[in-house]
Amino acid sequence: MDKKVLIMCTGNSCRSIIAEALINSQLDGMKAYSCGVAPSGKVNINAKKVLEQNNIWQDSYYSKHLDEVIDIDFDLVVTVCGHAQETCPTFPKKTDTIHVGFDDPDGKEFEAFETTYKEIKEVLLPKVKEKLKIGEEMNKKVFKLTDGVKINFTGAVAKEQIVKMVSNCATGACECMSSETKKKITNMQVEGKDGNVELKLSGDIAKEEIEKALAKSKVLNKD
Hints:
Number of helices: 7
Order of helices and strands: EHEHEHEHEEHHEEH
Low-confidence stretches: none
Structural class: alpha/beta
CATH architecture of the largest domain: 3-Layer(aba) Sandwich
Distance between the termini: 5 Å
Number of strands: 8
Strand order of the largest sheet: 2-1-3-4
């Protein structure tokens, strides 16, 4: 499932449109959107030109208000101008937000748009990729404890992801673990943060049964 990224600026006519197009064309595993807090209602002709020049323009790109996309469950919101950073709203779902500012090329010669394109490609794309850990793998290690097992998740793992897996298991919504194994578990505890999460399962359970369940988990192994 693609990670969803929202690029916000004031007018949604230059910087955010360029960033949206660059992410969609350059970063696999991501779907970018853009919007403005006070949209101009049109894409700057030079922004479109620089995207066409680099063969990444799409007719689906247009200047729009935040209201049109606020209900999308974004994995990351990026503000590219100070005004958008200051007025960035609270989203329905808890969403990570970062600010990567660029000078506004609006009203300048075409060379300024080429510079903005280059800066966004060289500065913003690596930060987005690093933040969402695209290209990394999730690593899982299971350890046997005297009173159960411990699983260490590192790399491309979100704490929320493990919490969801535990919730599914507790409510019977998961199919990865056998009913016999579920009966053995007396407690499940999630600790840590994104990139380094620990799950402790208490009970008379074997390391091998948990490794087998992890391999079948739809939450951990979704497309």
